[in-house]
Amino acid sequence: MTVTFAPQTSTAQTSTPLLATLRAETIKLTTVRATRVIAGLTIGVGGFAAFAVARFVEDEPLYVANVFGFSTVFTAVFAAVAAILVHTSDAEHGTLAQAFVAQPRRARVLAAKLVVAVGFAALLCVGGLAAGTAGSLLGGLGWENADTIPGIIGWSLGFSALAAVLGLGLGFAARQGAAAISGLLVWWLVVENIVMAFAKPTVARYLPFVAGNGMLGFDADDAGADFFGPEKSAVIFGVYALVVLAVGIVVARRTEP
Amino acid sequence: MLTVTSLTKSYGDHVVVDDLTFVVPAGRVTGFVGPNGAGKSTTMRMMVGLTRPDHGDVRYGDVPYHRLPRPGKVVGAALSAAAHPGRTARDHLRSLAAAGDVPRSRIDEVLADVGLTGAADQRVGGFSLGMGQRLALAAAVLNRPDVLLLDEPANGLDPDGIRWLRRFLRSYADAGGAVFVSSHLIAELSMFADDVVVIGGGRLLAAAPIDEIMQAGEPPVLVETPDAGDLCRLLEGNGLVVERTGHTVRASGTTRSEVAQLALDHHLRLDRLTDEERSLEDILVDLTAHAADFASGSLR
Q1: Angle made by CA atoms A234, A235, A240, in degrees to the nearest 5
Q2: pLDDT confidence of A10, banded at 50, 70, 90?
Q3: Is the pLDDT confidence value at B243 over 80?
Q4: What is the dihedral of CA A35, A38, A43, A47, to 10 degrees?
Q5: Are A101 and B49 in contact (CB under 8 A)?
């Protein structure tokens, strides 16, 4: 047996602490299967949704420009789930303690997680939009109104990133992946739909994910909510995301890992 | 060198660690022992900033943990065999190497050190407890730290693994590192530790070299005599604590020469007169008996 230990034989530090922590968090994200599954689902669901809309919706004129962005509705969910897992998989498996031992300034670890979660959300968004574009083309749509595409990409990136911020905040606060994910999905897919069925559209548009979808500028005729424009919707959803993140950071910094 | 000063931690009304002060010197293996619930794990978590003490501090050299510019270079901690079960051993170490800014080439070195080269690309979820412990140890030494903090590293290791761990930690200390290792395997610890810190009920009971602890106090005297009943009465009459099993009498708080003189004065025959051999485990169990939160029943 050889112990490759040599006191004081320091390897020169080449990264700032934040950059080192960021690299560590990136490796953690990219070396678990859940990340690949989420990326696959984002692309698969985004592509299929666009294809299905292109093939089967016939009551309005459709182009790639007004269909490819549908993928973001799903991408935002997956981005939030992935962000939850960025923290909860660490907390649940005891590796959060290792991260805090390696970097005692916990704010740096939490900041690195935020950057990684938002960065991954942006990648998911791009993948989802690409799949949405492919699905639209496979569904036979053309490139009319292409000048709106850059705007849709921008708002999609914003919605996905803010969804990741909100998801990460939930993960920080809950520490349990199952609890945080089920809470998120129940609120997003059940509670808001129930509220939209009963509340006035002018009230429902203040719900977080109604506002999030409002960022995409979809036609809201059937949605049960009177959407604000993308800018106001972004402010509403952004406030929700930042408040949840702030609460999560307070909990994460105070709780023993 | 690592210095723990007046470390105190309470949860509600329960004082878990109470005014703990001790030193872990470089080049030595220091065992950390105490009964279940004595506060060992809480103490170790405070030593690396995972739990905030109510009072007191821990310094590496003169620097508190949270002010160390590169904590991983100074302290390697294995407080549990934690790793994401879906990640391979190599990827687990890659993330830790990145956090500590350690070159990737070091990963293969530590995997070889702990005997996990062949399992490097297996998912940790398929590891045995012993393999998990080896991986935790690999993570702790990844950054070539000056101080190793290990919480029950022998848990789950087979006898060969325990022997390996013993040699590993001994050679680490011999190379100049400070090793601080908690263990409930006191007999095992006595084979390679230089010093021992004993706590019970969160308080320091002893902190000294093992040799010193072994020599402290008078061992009980064992006597084999056909006059065991008379000898017991005689010894008890002199205020000693005596246990009798057949023709064997065990007397505490006295010496062989005092017992021999008493027997001679009263014309009692002694067939054998010896000091009871006591292991470190015996001594420490006696030392911590009053402080044990979860003491065993009648099997002692």
Answers
A1: 95
A2: very low
A3: yes
A4: 180
A5: yes
Which residue out of B95, B144, B168 would a mutagenesis test of the A interface target, given it has the greatest number of A Cβ atoms within 10 Å? Answer: B95
Q: In angstroms, what separates the C-alpha of A142 from chain B's closest C-alpha?
A: 43
pLDDT mean across residues, chain B:
89
Rounded to two decimals, what is the model's pTM? 0.86
**Residue A31 and residue B172: Cβ atoms within 8 Å?**
no
Mean pLDDT of A226-235: 89
Cβ atoms of B98 and B167 within 8 Å: the answer is: no
Task: Identify which of A2, A5, A93 has the shortest CB distance to residue B84.
Answer: A93
CA distance B40 to B55: 16
d(Cα B243, Cα A171) in Å, to the nearest integer? 61
* CA angle, residues B112, B118, B121, in degrees to nearest 5: 105
Q: What is the ipTM of this complex?
A: 0.88
Contact list in B for residue A95 (CB cut-off 8 A) is 82-84, 92, 95
CB neighbours (10 Å) of residue B190? 19
Place of tokens 């009465």: B233
Query: How many of the other CB atoms lie within 10 Å of CB of B22?
Result: 21
Helix (H) or strand (E) holding B162: helix B159-174
- Is A89 within 8 Å of A131 (Cβ atoms)? no
Residues in chain B: 300
Measured at the CA of A140, the angle between CA A139 and CA A145, to 5 degrees, comes to 110
- What is residue B27's three-state secondary structure? coil
Interface test with B, best of A3, A23, A33, A92 (most B CBs within 10 A): A3
Other CB atoms within 10 A of residue B287 CB? 18
CB distance B98–A20 less than 8 Å? yes
CA distances (Å), origin A226, targets A113, A202, A222, B112, B278:
35, 5, 10, 63, 83
Phi/psi at A170 (5° precision) = -60, -45
Tell me, what's the pLDDT at B296? 52
Longest dimension (CA), chain A: 74
Closest CA to A160 of A209, A99, A118: A118
Q: Where are the beta strands (DSSP E) in chain B?
A: 2-11, 14-24, 29-33, 55-60, 63-64, 75-78, 147-151, 178-182, 195-200, 203-209, 221-224, 241-245, 248-252, 272-275
Tokens of A24: 């560590």
Query: Three-state SS across chain A?
Result: CCCCCCCCCCCCCCCCHHHHHHHHHHHHHHCCHHHHHHHHHHHHHHHHHHHHHHHHCCCCCCCHHHHHHHHHHHHHHHHHHHHHHHHHHHHHCCHHHHHHHHCCCHHHHHHHHHHHHHHHHHHHHHHHHHHHHHHHHHCCCCCCCHHHHHHHHHHHHHHHHHHHHHHHHHHHHHCCHHHHHHHHHHHHHHHHHHHHHHCCHHHHCCCHHHHHHHCCCCCCCCCCCCCCCHHHHHHHHHHHHHHHHHHHHHHHHHCCC
Tell the residue number behind the tokens 């005997």, with chain if given.
B115
